[in-house]
């Protein structure tokens, strides 16, 4: 286990003698007895010049240092809703080391709130995330209001957040019991995120806190206090500090060209369309329809990755599974993934012991991952496996063609069945994709290379393109899944995974997979591949393999997986080529990276808080 790993410890409800919610851990109240919302309005909104300061802006971003019960967020949301001159979008980032569970939050908040905040609190509780460490992006008001909850200590996570902040709400427990929330180092990180003219406000007036705020780069002053307090602190960023200029996609006026219409390209096009940014997606497979890259691929599995030390792949995979849930559960019919759960079957007793110990140390929420013994596994899956394993309730069975079609359906997305031979930038900085004889196929402010294994060759056509060694080492593996019919298909209610996987029946057929064929000339179904899939299935089920019969007549789907050495995806801007982005190397986990990459690139373009920690962005950065 990495010494940096911090398990997330939820808060426990408690009250002081006056009935005000308090933390027994810190020995302090969440808000003054005379009014949480009143304090939010007077100290945090007024102290930051709100609502006036967001007026006339496309987007406004608030960062809060302690989410607690969310009163400040609810007061902010209501004030923003009430203001006809509000910014088009409002983004809120809030840190919380000890979040409440949804039922506890509900019990603490709802009985004490009146409408209209009560109605907002109900929406908040409805959207409340699983208690997992890291960043969680919640959306309200049709996506115009986002709340990025950073679950973990602010000491660690403030460094990890990418945001362009206009106003800070400094709201820890009292500095005496909670010094981490008022430190010079923390304020330094807040300044790193600040836009020019950013402000900060807090009820706290402690001298040391004020000196730290000033040392970090704020001009600090006192103003009339609230309730029992004589004074409160307001601050504005020193005029020479802070980010200037607008993000390139602000206002939804940018356009994008996307090369590749598989899971990678579709994820980006969809996320851009949700923000009003139009794109043209180019891929010859569209001749077969919007889901052409997975034509005939009956179904696939999305299982959150997990390693015993919660390594970057595990953390990025968790973020990816959460994004996929947020984006794709909105779809209708066959496009909406079926959240049937995944059992990662573990037969080896040593491995089982190690995993159980790791789960104890990781302390991840049991509604995300838990250990099932053999009897519990049988109950969940309906299959007698004679073994237990890791149960991921967020395991999803995905119908590939309908999912791709739904992602690519928005009117802001144009699909063109074209092959791109080269890309480049014109004198005005606009990106262009070229076809045969130098014909311009499409142009836009941004160009996203999402062509899997075709990406390095296209990147090489950009004049002066920076060398990207990671990408140069991209390789691809062919592979196939096999379909089982009738009594051959396994009647499992959940995805079974291990060395290979077995999906619940779709349209009466079972899907088992998959093979890995290095250096395959072209993806194709083979009898040897079917046999390998059956061997994997029987190992998964812990059964002897039946004699081979009729495998030549079996059906399935074959495709490619493009990957780089660390088996992480490559997602992000290409340094030194403004407006050029990569979304590739999805390997065997395209479903885990698709929605995450889309939201990362789209959020980057629009200047929104990014839904992934900076150290993880580094890991997947094009290099
Ligand atoms: C047998 C098998 C089973 C799998 N099962 C799963 C699973 O259960 N779960 C999971 O998450 N993942 C699974 N995968 C992996 C998953 O399919 C990939 O990770 C995913 O398809 C990658 O998406 P992509 O968009 O990057 O690449 P692709 O799907 O390969 O799409 C890239 C697209 O770019 C286009 N393109 C390339 N160059 C150009 C160009 N110059 N101009 C225009 N277009 C271009 C191509 O035509 C292609 O359509 C499986 C893969 C295989 C092979
Ligand atoms: C005063 S309460 C915040 C009240 C909240 N703003 C509201 O509107 O309900 C302080 C919050 O900071 C959190 N906190 C304390 N120390 C922290 C730390 N080191 N990192 C992140 N959050 C922390 C506490 O768990 C608590 O929820």
From TrEMBL:
Residues 259-623 are annotated as: FAD-dependent cmnm(5)s(2)U34 oxidoreductase. It comes from Parapusillimonas granuli. Keywords: Cytoplasm, FAD, Flavoprotein, Methyltransferase, Multifunctional enzyme, Oxidoreductase, S-adenosyl-L-methionine, Transferase, tRNA processing. NCBIfam families: MnmC_Cterm, tRNA_MNMC2. GO terms for molecular function: flavin adenine dinucleotide binding; oxidoreductase activity, acting on the CH-NH group of donors; tRNA (5-methylaminomethyl-2-thiouridylate)(34)-methyltransferase activity. GO terms for cellular component: cytoplasm. Its cofactor is FAD. This is tRNA 5-methylaminomethyl-2-thiouridine biosynthesis bifunctional protein MnmC. Its EC number is 2.1.1.61, 1.5.-.-. Residues 117-237 form the MnmC-like methyltransferase domain.
């Amino acid at each position: 286990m990495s010494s940096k790993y911090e398990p997330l410890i939820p808060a426990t409800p408690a009250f002081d003698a006056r009935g005000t919610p308090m933390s027994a851990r810190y020995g302090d109240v969440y808000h003054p007895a005379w009014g949480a919302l009143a304090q939010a309005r007077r100290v945090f909104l007024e102290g930051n010049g709100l609502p006036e300061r967001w007026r006339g802006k496309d987007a406004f971003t608030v960062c809060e240092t302690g989410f607690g019960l969310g009163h400040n967020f609810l007061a902010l949301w209501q004030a923003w809703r009430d203001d006809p001159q509000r910014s088009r979008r409002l983004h809120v980032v809030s840190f919380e080391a000890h979040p409440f569970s949804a039922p506890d939050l509900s019990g603490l908040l709802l009985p004490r709130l009146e409408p209209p905040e009560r109605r907002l609190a109900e929406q908040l509780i409805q959207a409340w995330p699983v208690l997992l460490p890291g960043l969680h992006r919640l959306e309200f008001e049709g996506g115009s209001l986002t709340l990025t909850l950073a679950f973990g200590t602010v000491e660690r996570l403030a460094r990890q957040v990418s945001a362009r902040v206009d106003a800070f709400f400094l709201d820890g427990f009292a500095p005496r019991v909670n010094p981490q929330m008022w430190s010079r180092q923390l304020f330094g990180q807040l300044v790193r995120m600040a836009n020019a003219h950013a402000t900060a406000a807090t009820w706290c007036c402690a001298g040391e806190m004020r000196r730290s705020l000033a040392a970090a780069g704020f001009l600090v002053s006192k103003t009339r206090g609230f309730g029992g307090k004589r004074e409160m602190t307001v601050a504005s960023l020193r005029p020479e500090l802070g980010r200037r200029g607008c993000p390139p996609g602000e206002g939804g006026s940018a356009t994008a060209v996307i090369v590749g219409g598989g899971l990678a390209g579709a994820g980006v096009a969809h996320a851009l369309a949700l923000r009003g940014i139009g794109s043209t997606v180019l891929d010859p497979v569209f001749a077969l329809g919007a889901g052409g890259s997975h034509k005939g691929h009956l179904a696939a599995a999305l299982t959150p990755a997990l390693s015993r030390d919660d390594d970057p792949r595990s953390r990025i995979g968790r973020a990816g599974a959460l994004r996929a849930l947020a984006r794709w559960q909105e779809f209708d019919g066959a496009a909406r993934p079926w959240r049937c759960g995944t059992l990662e079957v573990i037969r080896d007793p040593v491995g089982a012991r190690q995993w159980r110990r790791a789960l104890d140390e990781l302390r991840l929420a049991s509604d995300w991952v838990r250990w099932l013994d053999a009897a519990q596994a049988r109950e969940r899956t309906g299959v007698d496996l004679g073994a237990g394993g890791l149960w991921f309730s967020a395991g999803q069975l995905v119908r590939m063609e309908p999912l791709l079609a739904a992602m690519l359906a928005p009117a802001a997305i144009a699909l063109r069945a074209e092959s791109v031979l080269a890309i480049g930038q014109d004198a005005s900085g606009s990106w262009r994709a070229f076809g045969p004889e130098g014909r311009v196929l499409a142009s836009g402010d941004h160009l996203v290379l999402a062509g899997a294994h075709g990406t390095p060759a296209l990147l090489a056509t950009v004049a002066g393109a920076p060398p990207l060694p990671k990408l140069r080492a991209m390789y691809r593996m062919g592979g196939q899944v096999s379909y089982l019919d009738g009594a051959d298909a396994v009647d499992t209610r959940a995805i079974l995974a291990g060395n290979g996987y077995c999906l619940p029946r779709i349209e009466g057929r079972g899907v088992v997979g998959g093979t890995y064929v290095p250096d395959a000339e072209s993806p194709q179904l083979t009898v040897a591949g079917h046999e390998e899939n059956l061997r994997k299935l029987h190992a998964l089920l812990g059964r002897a393999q039946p004699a081979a019969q009729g495998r030549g007549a079996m059906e399935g789907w074959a495709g490619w997986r493009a990957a780089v050495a660390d088996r992480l995806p490559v997602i992000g801007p290409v340094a030194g080529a403004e407006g050029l982005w990569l979304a590739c190397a999805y390997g065997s986990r395209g479903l885990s990276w698709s929605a995450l990459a889309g939201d990362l690139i789209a959020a980057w373009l629009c200047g929104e808080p990014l839904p992934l920690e900076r150290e993880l962005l580094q890991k997947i950065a094009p290099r």
